[in-house]
């Protein structure tokens, strides 16, 4: 079976989930792992010297559990799809069938053990002003306290982004300020090329 693991990383509210959902619809036999599903419980999140719960750091996430979930897909994508309620194409069990996993999240390129699993590494970014605007319209399971964006979210983004640029040289950047269609088309084309090249 041919297998492709696609990373969709990027800044908070850059459009990762939007792009991921469109790709899942378009790509047969595709499954997803959302990093957001691996946040620890609020009482397990450290409170920093700044007084903020430190959500935007890798230790706020159970990355071992996330890695094991990805490994589960690698071992048996058909079983993974079934247990996650993904309907498969009639060809899915043939030896030459293609299976795709999308790994989506804001810190997916800041955890060494996962870096090598991605066949494709996309990264969506948007500038500060737009990020702050979009974030202010969003409500997480724990709502942002006043000042969190400027005091924690954006500084941590800058730090992790630097780290990523240093650790990973295969990133394909997507401009989150372009339209949803443009972003989707750019990613889709790149994925089709990878599939054609038997990546
Ligand atoms: N290309 C885009 N242009 C304008 N708004 C967008 C675009 N992509 C996503 N959005 C909007 O930005 C917000 C965050 O998008 P989402 O996909 O949930 O981001 P993420 O998963 O990266 O946090 C949503 O309101 C979404 O509709
Ligand atoms: N899902 C949760 O339980 C939860 C709780 C608090 C904050 N967050 C925020 O989620 C963000 C990452 O997710 P997005 O990339 O989808 O915005 C982080 O910036 C973090 O501050 C998520």
TrEMBL record:
Record-level GO BP terms: NAD+ metabolic process; pyridine nucleotide biosynthetic process
Family: Belongs to the uridine kinase family. NRK subfamily.
Keywords associated with the record: ATP-binding, Kinase, Magnesium, Metal-binding, Nucleotide-binding, Pyridine nucleotide biosynthesis, Transferase
Cross-referenced Pfam families: AAA_18 (PF13238)
Keyword Metal-binding set for record: yes
GO MF, any single term: ATP binding
Species the sequence originates in: Sphaeramia orbicularis
UniProt pathway: Cofactor biosynthesis; NAD(+) biosynthesis
Cellular component, GO, one term: cytosol
Catalyses which reaction(s): beta-nicotinamide D-riboside + ATP = beta-nicotinamide D-ribonucleotide + ADP + H(+); beta-D-ribosylnicotinate + ATP = nicotinate beta-D-ribonucleotide + ADP + H(+)
UniProt keyword Metal-binding present: yes
Protein name stated in the entry: Nicotinamide riboside kinase 2
InterPro entries: P-loop_NTPase
